[in-house]
Amino acid sequence: MLARKSIIPEEYVLARIAAENLRKPRIRDRPRKARFIAKNGACNLAHKNIREQGRFLQDIFTTLVDLKWRHTLVIFTMSFLCSWLLFAMMWWLVAFAHGDMDPSTENTSNSTKWTPCVTCVRSFTSAFLFSIEVQVTIGFGGRMMTEECPLAITVLILQNIVGLIINAVMLGCIFMKTAQAHRRAETLIFSRQAVIAVRNGKLCFMFRVGDLRKSMIISASVRIQVVRKTTTPEGEVIPIHQVDIPVDNPIESNNIFLVAPLIICHVIDKRSPLYDISASDLALQDLELIVILEGVVETTGITTQARTSYVAEEILWGHRFVPIVTEEEGVYAVDYSKFGNTVKVAAPRCSARELDEKPSILIQTLQKSELSHQNSLRKRNSMRRNNSIRRSNSMRRTNSSLVVPKVQFITPEGSQSASET
């Protein structure tokens, strides 16, 4: 705030503002780069100028499954309606060709033995109802086919075959849409932020993953990829260059037992793309770390995949995840309210390469952390001691204020006597 003009001269105020502006460097925000993978796992990719659209019709089942629900429901409804209308037209033509629509046939006597192809089909409405009864096997009993027309028998067989195909495709499409693998991935969660801290004497990139369901993911594996824009020595620009980085796992295989939330660790060594990045360089890096969790759903046996990504702004240097698994009354309890909580820990601000070249940096960092921790404990103890002294002094003052003063009584004989009450 600016000072009042009557109290501080304007020249001093302007000089102070200029000095503050000189001390504080101005940092221009970099334009945010588009993510390749969103936090919810969706791919941020748009396909344009696809000329061979017919390839999607060659795999019609996958195309139907990939459509949105409203489009799938419209196709589901229209496929049945169109098939019913098509065969209703065929039944009407069969009846019309046989003469079942002629009103004179209704007045024929029983001696002539007139037998229609389909009984009680004398209009397009009745033909449409009979088409529905044939395809969905309702059969109310009012309309039925006779042995008079072989063409009608052929239409009946054809409609049954077409109806079974439509039922299989549409019901299978609806089932696959409801049991898609990414539906199970909705309950596989990742920490909102990743951290870089020291573990076992090495700088490590870590994040937390968990499963909200009790049904497990069988043979779950985690892969990490770094996506960044690179330029080859020949001058070729690769906008999306993917590099796999190893995941530290004490088990020989890459599978994890995801029964409780786990902290996945990547040791930043010579093979890591983060080997030359320090804490100050991290904010300037144009990279994205993609995490892919794959496994088989225990209940359905379908392979599922959950994805997320971390950009430079979402990586905390010198932090560690807090423990969330505790033992309560013989049961391991997981507190998901602290799933993404982190605490600051001692970590060198240099890169992993500098840490390998000068291991003393880690020792100095830990010593400074220990000294600061001891100083904080001393300050806390001194504050507690001062507070206890203040409390004791205040209690003494309170007790002294409660002491009753001495009172002198004068007897009738003129003698004085002192008493305390």
Describe the structure.
There is one protein chain. With 421 residues, the protein is α+β, with helices and mostly antiparallel strands. The protein has two domains: 67-179, Orthogonal Bundle (Helix Hairpins), CATH 1.10.287.70; 184-365, Immunoglobulin-like (Sandwich), CATH 2.60.40. Helix content is 37%, strand content 23%. It is built from ten helices and 16 strands. Strands 1, 2, 3, 7 and 10 form a five-stranded mixed beta sheet that branches. Strands 4, 5, 6, 8 and 9 form a five-stranded antiparallel beta sheet that branches. A two-stranded antiparallel ribbon has the order 11-14. Mean pLDDT is 78; it is low at 1-15, 22-28 and 414-421. GO terms for molecular function: ATP-activated inward rectifier potassium channel activity.
Chain-wise SSE layout:
Elements: H1 10-23, H2 54-58, H3 60-66, H4 69-98, H5 124-136, H6 150-178, H7 181-184, E1 188-190, E2 194-199, E3 202-211, E4 217-231, E5 237-245, E6 255-256, E7 262-267, H8 279-282, E8 287-297, E9 303-311, E10 315-317, E11 319-321, E12 325-328, E13 331-334, E14 342-344, H9 352-357, H10 360-401, E15 407-410, E16 416-419
Parallel strand pairs: 2-10
Antiparallel strand pairs: 1-3, 2-3, 3-7, 4-5, 4-6, 4-8, 8-9, 11-14, 12-13, 15-16
Q: Notable features of this structure?
A:
5-stranded antiparallel sheet; 421 residues; IRK_C; elongated; disordered N terminus; transmembrane; alpha+beta
